[in-house]
Design goal:
The complex is a heterodimer. Chain A is α+β, with helices and mostly antiparallel strands. Chain A contains three helices and five strands. In chain A, a hairpin with a 2-residue loop joins strand 3 and strand 4 (61-63). The chains are: A alpha+beta, B mainly beta.
């Protein structure tokens, strides 16, 4: 499925839009890590929590749980939230 | 190779390179513009290798590694991270890699990292992969003392001042803000507090390790039984095998006090060290007392102190210098350097007798470290 990458993470992907797969958001992130080593820990901490200033949207709806199910036609957008100066 | 002064800032990494006489300095950077860089340390065992502790406002903490003196960088494959919490346990995640220390000369490739919240990590492959040191991180007593993310200093609790005894790779010291000073003689498997003689904020119990806030601990490389400490409550000296710190800051002028963050030791003289006093009165402004910045030096192990402010602003300069933001080179006479949170770098090529500003308008400076300067 299509995954939109925010600018802070493009040093990993080198592109704004990438393809990745997974039946859940957790699996999708794992696939992103396989394709772009190091990217997962910048978004997800060691307790498997989404970092405070990272947001995931699936088909424009914000999701906060890595167990949310995905289908191949979904579009996932990763967004950097506001984090001050 | 004339050496490098690495400048870690809240918005990226910079480098200052001097001419052979250290009179003119050329700045380069920023590298990693926008990244929060807490520490940049060159490997004394192989100065081509440099490690950088980084994060951003959005992205999690990591370590970057260079093998060409900072020209190119590669991210750690496995950055410092706590182990996954089990049910019912407080879950900790590294918010920032705060401190980097190269391992013992005999252990090439070994590095230590201190984090916020307080955690200790070791790499044995030059910083590529990092493992938690369970003897500290998972000791229930220590977890109580070091606290969680809500404890510690305003920017979060920190583990810092990781020191490796040059005579023994298994002998380590560290400081936690808060959480006290600790020592291990078996590579970090077991630890014991080293807080006797240290004072704490008035009316608190000095026997409670959690109340101790070491700001910066340093060991004399050529006289490794001598340690010094800039603490939240004064300047101290420890001569091993004694386990009792002696407050040597009481001989500082009363109007200046002995509060501050950084502490720099002379590379060849165990009785000489420099501090940068800050205002610890009232609500703890932690700026230069009375707006008049100065370095102070002792040449006799803390018996007497002398003010060194020639060239520094004579007033209206409210500098804050953080614990990693002051360092020395190995020249004769020793060069001293400090960076301010207002983005200025000051240098002295004569052990503090005269200062001049060698860079300004930089972001908030977290750390200043010399590499290959005079070595």
């Amino acid at each position: 499925m299509k995954v939109l990458i925010p600018t802070p993470l493009r040093s990993y992907t080198q592109q704004r839009e990438v393809e990745a797969s997974g039946a859940t958001l957790a699996e999708l992130v794992t696939d992103l890590e396989r394709r772009y080593p190091g990217i997962r820990f910048r978004m997800i901490d060691e307790q498997d929590c989404i970092r405070p200033h990272i947001r995931f949207f699936v088909n424009s709806e914000q999701v906060r749980d890595l167990t949310v199910r995905l289908s191949p036609s979904d579009e996932v957008q990763i967004v950097q939230a506001l984090s001050g100066g | 190779m004339a050496g490098i002064l690495w400048i870690a800032t809240r918005k990226g990494a910079f480098a200052l390179r001097p001419d052979a006489r250290r009179r003119t300095w050329k700045i380069s950077g920023p590298q990693f513009l926008g990244h929060v860089i807490h520490h940049i340390v060159a490997d004394p065992r192989d100065p081509k290798v440099v490690l950088m502790a980084a994060k951003t406002g959005h992205l999690g903490p990591t370590v970057f590694r260079s093998t060409d003196r900072g020209r190119t960088w590669k991210e750690a494959a496995q950055p410092p991270a706590f182990r996954k919490a089990v049910a019912g346990e407080d879950a900790r995640s590294v918010q920032a890699v705060f401190w980097l220390t190269a391992g013992h000369a005999s252990e090439r490739g070994t590095w230590y990292a201190g984090t916020s919240p307080a955690g200790l990590f070791r790499s044995e492959d030059g910083g590529v992969t990092w493992q938690p040191i369970e003897g500290l991180n998972d000791n229930p007593q220590y977890r109580k003392w070091m606290g969680g993310p809500q404890d510690g200093t305003p920017d979060g609790p920190k583990l810092h001042s990781i020191i490796v005894d040059p005579r023994d790779p298994a002998h380590l010291y560290l400081g936690m803000s808060s959480g006290g000073v600790h020592e291990s003689v078996n590579h970090g498997r077991d630890w014991r507090p080293l807080i006797k003689g240290l004072e704490v904020v008035e009316e608190l119990d000095a026997s409670n390790v959690a109340f101790h806030d070491p700001h910066c601990v340093r060991l004399c490389t050529l006289t490794p039984d001598r340690l010094y400490q800039q603490n939240h409550c004064g300047i101290y000296r420890l001569d091993r095998p004694s386990t009792e710190w002696v407050r040597i800051g009481r001989s500082m002028p009363k109007s200046v006090g002995d509060i501050g963050f950084p502490m720099v030791l002379h590379p060849r003289d165990a009785d000489t060290l420099w501090v940068f006093p800050m205002d610890g009165s009232g609500v703890w402004p932690r700026t230069s007392p009375d707006g008049k910045p100065s370095v102070y030096v002792t040449r006799n192990g803390g018996k007497t102190w002398r003010r060194l402010d020639a060239g520094l602003p004579s007033g209206s300069a409210w500098y804050t210098v953080l614990r990693q933001a002051m360092t020395a080179d190995a020249h004769e006479p020793v060069g001293l350097y400090f960076g301010t949170t207002s983005g200025e770098v000051w240098a002295s090529t004569n052990e503090g007798s005269r200062w001049r500003c060698v860079a300004r308008h930089l972001p908030h400076i977290y750390a200043v470290e010399a590499a290959e300067l005079g070595r």
